[in-house]
Amino acid sequence: MSPVATEISIDGRGLSDRLAALASIGEIEGTDGACRLALTDEDRDGRDLVVAWMRDLGLEVSIDGIGNVIGALAGAEPGPPVMCGSHIDTVRTGGRYDGNLGVLAGLQVIEAVQQAGITTRRPLAVGFFTDEEGARFPPDMLGSLVYTGELPLEEALDVVGADGAVLGAELDRIGYRGPAPCPSPPPHAFVELHIEQGPILDAEDIVIGAVTGVQGISWTEITVAGQSNHAGTTPMDMRHDAGWAATRIAVFVHELAAEFGPPQVCTVGRVELHPNLVNVVASDAVITVDMRNTDDHLLTEAEERLAAFLEELAAESGTGISSRRLARFAPVEFAPEMIDRVERAAGALGLSHRRLCSGAGHDAQMFAPVCPTSMIFVPSWQGISHNPFEHTEPDHLEAGANVLLRVMLELAEIAEASEVEKAGATT
Ligand code: GLV
Ligand code: MN
Ligand code: MN
Predict the structure, then answer these.
(1) Following CA atoms 19, 20, 26, 32 in sequence, which dihedral angle do they give, to the nearest 10 degrees?
(2) Å from CA of 138 to ligand 3 middle
(3) pLDDT, tens digit, for every residue of 297-350?
(4) Ligand 1 and 198: CB distance under 6 A
(5) What's this model's pTM, rounded to 2 decimal places?
(6) Is the CB of 133 under 6 A from ligand 1?
(7) pLDDT single digits (tens) 187-232
(8) Helix, strand, coil share (%) of the chain residues, nearest 5
(9) Hey, what's the torsion of the CAs at 86, 88, 89, 95, to 10 degrees?
(10) Ion ligand 2 — residues with CB < 5 Å
(11) Distance between CA atoms of 288 and 221, rounded to whole angstroms?
């Protein structure tokens, strides 16, 4: 790597300040966290702030038809950029680092490059992608799915959220349906810095994770239709109890994960009962099941076992049970040379590092099929995430951002003075 590149570094204080400013939008009182569910007013306000920062840095900002926002810095040569980015939407109980780190570190990378007065041969870009969490509008990684052409735009705009809102209408309401085309041409390469959101780096006291890939994800929404009735008078064998069925499903998937063993994980994250009253047998239940595994065959087997169980349960409980798939992503492996780049950069900076697979879903997994892609992880305190008490040490944030900077500079290449002059003469 050029000697110039090794001298540049990130302003860690600036990164922490930006993270704090963004977390103040949708702040969850008494915590460091925030609630900015996709396409809500809080998401819009967060977007406005980050776009203002992009414009302050002089980036060319483009917004596409699903609301993905990309800020680009021209290089000495035209062509696809070396892109980094992540998301700024959160789950309802969001921390301040999940997603936000990858976007705001990208701004710090651009700022560091500008302050060093260097020009890269390839353009640099930083993006944030709509609705990565999928907590409001399934599936997760929706914006990057549309960006890379895996999900048709029209289909995405029609998605109905958990609160009944329609995605396209909400996008219009917050003013973030833009003219840039999607799918968009793939970048030269994509790199995402993210907190680990799991316990490995923290437990092993390692600063940098070179991410090898992302495990497979399967989300299912299950609807149980029973009959509401009096809790005191209805004999147990005459019930059509949606509440009981819902709890059976939760127990089943928990036991299934135990039977399969790690890395299989299963979660019931949402349970809604109707009419949800102490003395009424529930007539209806809606529950979600999130299942993940690094082995796609095992994940498929888990899905089949759940489907078979639901059939038995419907008969046993005298209810009608239907289900729909909210998300399904096969496991993803990142390009070996991109994983190597992350390791090399961490090593050159004297940072401890190890390889690991991501348990969480990320925008980077959508880029992996269309361009060389990698991810950089930094530790999550006690592995806590999707929780307002999510925390990463400022030194680790800065270290991760410096690795991002080095990897991006290596990919974008610093232009010779003559190339910069030539580009200046022709533009
Ligand atoms: C995204 O945060 C996920 O659910 O993994
Ligand atoms: Mn995330
Ligand atoms: Mn998340």
Answers:
(1) 110
(2) 13
(3) 999 999 999 999 999 999 999 999 999 999 999 999 999 999 999 999 999 999
(4) no
(5) 0.95
(6) yes
(7) 999 999 999 999 999 999 999 999 999 999 999 999 999 999 999 9
(8) 40, 25, 35
(9) 100
(10) 98-99
(11) 4
**Of 88, 133, 137, best ligand 1 pocket probe by most atoms within 8 Å of the beta carbon:** 133
DSSP secondary structure letter of residue 329: E
Please give all residues whose CB falls under 5 A of ion ligand 3, grouped by chain where several chains appear.
98
Residues in the chain: 427
Whose C-alpha lies nearest to ligand 1, atom 2? 133
pLDDT at 4 over 70: no
Q: Is 361 in the pocket of ligand 1 (CB under 6 A)?
A: yes
Tell me, what amino acid is at 391? H
Q: Does the pLDDT at position 156 exceed 80?
A: yes
Indicate if ligand 1 lies below 6 Å from the C-beta of 360: yes
The two three-digit tokens of residue 418, written as one number: 């003559």
How many Å lie between the centroid of ligand 3 and the Cα of residue 112? 27
Q: Which token pair is 196?
A: 């680990």
CA distance 174 to 421: 41
pLDDT tens string 256-284: 999 999 999 999 999 999 999 999 999 99
State whether residue 107 is helix, strand or coil. helix
Confidence check: pLDDT of 419 > 90? no
In sequence order, the β-bridge partners of residue 272 are: 286
Note the pLDDT of residue 213. Answer: 98
Atom of ligand 1 nearest to the CA of 135: 4
DSSP letter string over 237-257? GG-B-HHHHHHHHHHHHHHHH
pLDDT over 70, % of the chain: 98
| Per-residue model confidence (pLDDT) at position 3 | 62
